[in-house]
TrEMBL record:
Belongs to the AHA1 family. This is SRPBCC domain-containing protein. Gene3D superfamilies: 3.30.530.20. Residues 12-129 form the Activator of Hsp90 ATPase homologue 1/2-like C-terminal domain. It comes from Flavobacterium azizsancarii. It comes from the Bacteria. The lineage of its organism: Bacteria, Pseudomonadati, Bacteroidota, Flavobacteriia, Flavobacteriales.
Amino acid sequence: MEKIEHINYIKSPIAEVYKVLTTQEGLAAVWTTELIVKPEVGFINEFDFDDNYDTKMKVVELSPNKRIVWECVDSDPEWIGTGISFDLTEKDGVTAVVLKHFDWRELTEFYQWCNYNWAMFLLSLKSYCEDGEGTPYQKRKF
């Protein structure tokens, strides 16, 4: 099984970063403006990237200011059954975010494209938390 893993350091309190990663307002500012999100274990978050289907992520774990885990239950076939986790730690006012997208069945071109896009997601998260403006899908240039 393949895994994507990134880390980024954000000059923002851990509680603020956690809030952005778990709320509709926050994820709309950094990932996609078309979404339905609730910070509830068991809820299925829906994200639309204008690709003729919704990406649906079941909220598996919410450990406030520490960890978020989603399981992909519907999306591109390569994503279904994969998991995404965000592990957060804070030191001296800087929050480290470790993003993992795990249980990929194989390393494909789509995997490589997603690897790049997860890095862009973390950059958007950093920009939003530090400067108040993220770059959701609808504002990105591809």
